[in-house]
Amino acid sequence: MLPLSFKEFKTAFSNLENSELFNRYLNYGAFPVLTKTEFDVQTYDQILLGIYNTILVKDVTKRNGISDITILERISKFLAGNVGSLISTSNITKEVVKVGRPILQKTVDKYIKALCDSFLFYKVDRYNIKGKTVLKTNSKYYMVDTGIRNTLLSSENLDAGHLIENIVFLELLRRGYRVNVGKIDDLEIDFVATKLNTKEYYQVAASMLDNGVKARELEPLQKIKDNFPKFVLTLDDFEGTYEGIEQVNLRNWLLQK
Questions:
Q1: Rounded CA gap, 253 and 127, in Å?
Q2: pLDDT tens, 230-252?
Q3: CB atoms within 10 A of CB 8
Q4: Max CA-CA distance within the chain?
Q5: What is the distance between the alpha carbons of residues 32 and 35, in angstroms, rounded to a whole number?
């Protein structure tokens, strides 16, 4: 079960302005227990760490017979710090070995599978849009809750771009889509969302006010020649259309449906 959607979260904090509400959602996540707890940074952190440790110990280590919790935590933190980035188990193995903990790649595979089976993380494979095939090399991982990620990483890697990408991924799951990372030529599309006979393409960016960023985000979508809907979700107040590609404010999109 996923944490609350932004729409559900908004009903619990109707007294907050939209910008403050979204920042809290982004930074502390949306586990229902937080809606019943008076806001306090230290209290929220303690709750989120408690949830994380419970999942790690009960759902991951005990259920999968994992004894080396130190390596498991290192792998978990690596995945959390790299949400939205293409990574492979060989990359993670090298990172663990680099800090003096020898480990086999098949063991890393086992640990990652255990983390995904517990729904702490979600693995997202790449999809070749032209070839219409799922690619087996490199994948992306997203975390079940941005609040847990932020608490786990403290001040490390808390950039808005990766956080909002994580939020969009979770929302697409809530809406019943099967989600892949798109590849077209040598370019990447953040999400290819498929449901029955429909498909939608999404780019996610904190802002497109810079012309260079705008060109970079639009280019992969412009290369797609089918007629399925194409979106760029940003935190900008501006909304508009570029050659059939819709730029939509992320908060407004989250409150739809």
A1: 24
A2: 999 999 999 999 989 999 999 99
A3: 13
A4: 54
A5: 5
Amino acid at the residue 157? N
Q: Per-residue pLDDT for 157 more than 80?
A: no
Residue 78 and residue 95 in contact, taking contact as beta carbons nearer than 8 Å:
yes
Query: What is the value of pTM for the model shown?
Result: 0.93
Amino acid symbol at 242: Y
Tokens standing for 219? Answer: 């280019």
Backbone angles phi, psi at 111, to 5 degrees: -65, -40
Residue burial 119-135, b: 16+ Cβ < 10 Å; e: rest = ebbbebebbebeeeeee
- Domains defined for the chain, CATH in brackets: 159-257 (3.40.1350)
Nearest-5° angle of CA 89, CA 224, CA 211?
85
d(CA 178, CA 191): 10
66 confidence band (pLDDT: 50, 70, 90): confident
The closest alpha carbon to 123, from 177, 167, 171, 87, belongs to 87
DSSP the chain: -----HHHHHHHTTTS-HHHHHHHHHHH---HHHHTS---HHHHHHHHHHHHHHIIIIIIIIHHT---HHHHHHHHHHHHHTTTS-B-HHHHHHHHHHTT----HHHHHHHHHHHHHTTSEEEEEEEETTTTEEEEEEEEEEES-HHHHHHHHTTSS--HHHHHHHHHHHHHHHTT-EEEEEEETTEEEEEEEEETTEEEEEEE-S---SHHHHHHHHHHHHT--S-S-EEEEES-S--EEETTEEEEEHHHHHT--
Tokens 């705008």 map to which residue? 214
Question: Could you tell me the two tokens for 78?
Answer: 């690596």
